[in-house]
């Protein structure tokens, strides 16, 4: 397996400087391992992992893990949850026999160090000396990065079977938790597809999402916790309080052979400096291990930054994120060759790229080998310095609980918020992240402002106050350029995560200490408003449009078959004033049950009036037929599908076969998620390259394209999101023109939260605050408009940036974002920026749901409404 050329040993002086044994293969070849007692991966799978053109399947990998756990007293196999499709999510725990007997004690000590309140320095030192650091290794986070799954059996076998000083030291001093696949579903799909297409003309790479909903974004979910796999991993980290988390990935071939930390600037300032330095030092340790084994092309300080919590939960919880990215092979498992026969990648050595790679080929075996070294390099260091790792972890957590003058004292979410569901979701997110929340039991004053009892308080000085702070504060991303005056240095991902803005919750930052009597909130629950009495047969139920949970009520009413209207104007009833978009619901038993249930889930209050209001309204179409276009490997659509399922919106995916018939016969509204081009619809997947199971993604041709246009002209509603607005423009020659400069020197918004002005009288913007901020990512666009109704636009002047990073905000001044277009008998609504980006942007998600139901609805006069309500 390891047949590629090994670099000659380092000079003796360099060897002395190394604290680590040189290489895994040197030890593996030693006599002590002549007769392994546990089946080797090669014996089990029939080939060495990493062999050319071969991938072990997930089910076989699982069988191997169980076998090793059966035969070894150093390995435990557990299933700690179920994936999005119901597959088991396995965990391997690897350590010495004594440690495995002692896991409860180790866990208890680590938890004590994680929350050092009341712990003295001397006690902490003692505990650090007694316990064992916990090292969490996560593989197959992205299932097409196949080497990360294939390397795990080798690591496991070596730890379970090898009698060497290196392995003994690791087992005695570290508790290793291995998540052999963070996305087991995708790992199975990708491996099976690769094997089943062998010997055919079909492409070998699985073409679709490799996590049920969010595919590659499964590691962009580390603060909203939407997916079961994320929730499992967060629960695991909360339980164990690991000192190190290593993530195995693969990248492209343009750069080095492997990336390790330190990261590129910037660091999120909320990551403790000790955590950053632990990251840097362990990254360097891995680099040293790789270089000492003659593995060239090691690179740090490029591409990947240490900014967004969407990719890293552990860093706000005391553990470094050790990201390792190996370059990829060709078509998953075949040799990658340079195009010119020369060595692969950059050839200029640098301080962060000591040895350029000198070969013209790169194989899966090398990926497996590099990753293996990276894991043992890190493990050996943590084993050797176990007390320091635990003590530094304690120091990190000590910093977290010590009040500091340059940190806020607390965050306060006042009682009586506009959106009770949003408030619940914000608090639940924090609580899932182990943040302690208190509730005021009497009125109090902070920063000169009076707060009512029932307000929520999140103190900064607590073990995971850093996590709360990064989510609650406004991000100020540094203006980083490639060179002075040059183009922006691209962030690896996005730059903003301010939850109060994304969810629409008021949260005040309180700098100075204040006193308040509180109770600790054990489990955040939705508000429980009293449900009103029966309105009687001349009355109606009323629900305000302000909460982004309100569409959940609409979905429940649609399911119940309840007649539902939305007020087109403000009105008063029963001494209370109701905003445009208020739900006016028939006074039936079915409606009552649906509303009661949805109110319990969301905390949204329902009102009842004995006399139905006389106000102009829209009657929602019974059983509105919602279609969500399914694009192959379309991540924005996957997020949206998840959201629709959470809201229990009755919807169907729109697939290629639907375009062959009459779209209007099947759908009232079709949503085109971001990332769908005309070519994705017309050409789709090539049927010569993908078997019939992908027929849903085959192109629909020009006839299908014409059918989509006819769908709108014949009265259908089409919603185009983000960069799919360009597709809708092509479809119907919409009178809007992209307004933003394409040069990144001039305009750049790499995932930020921006200012917005809404026309809240427009049905698409019902329930929005006039100045609700919106998400704006790098593929989003603002428009000049020569027709249509502008629902939202950027302010004419002033600061466009609310959180994150923005260059050239003045180019947005007065430009349109959301526009409604009448096309024939139908409607197209174009959303220049994604209102439901990764479902983080939740307050603006109302816009999408409003538009879904608005298009197919019909209007009712004020005088007619009371009768219409009674059917
Ligand atoms: Zn990856």
From TrEMBL:
GO cellular component, one term: extracellular space
Pfam families in alphabetical order: Peptidase_M14 (PF00246)
Necessary cofactors: Zn(2+)
Domain Peptidase M14, residue spans: 66-362
Recorded coiled-coil stretches: none
Keywords: Carboxypeptidase, Hydrolase, Metalloprotease, Protease, Signal, Zinc
GO terms for biological process, alphabetical: proteolysis
Signal peptide: 1-34
This protein's record includes keyword Acetylation: no
One MF annotation (Gene Ontology) recorded for this entry: metallocarboxypeptidase activity
InterPro entries: Class_I_gatase-like, Peptidase_M14, TAT_signal
Similarity section: Belongs to the peptidase M14 family.
Name of the protein in its database record: Zinc carboxypeptidase
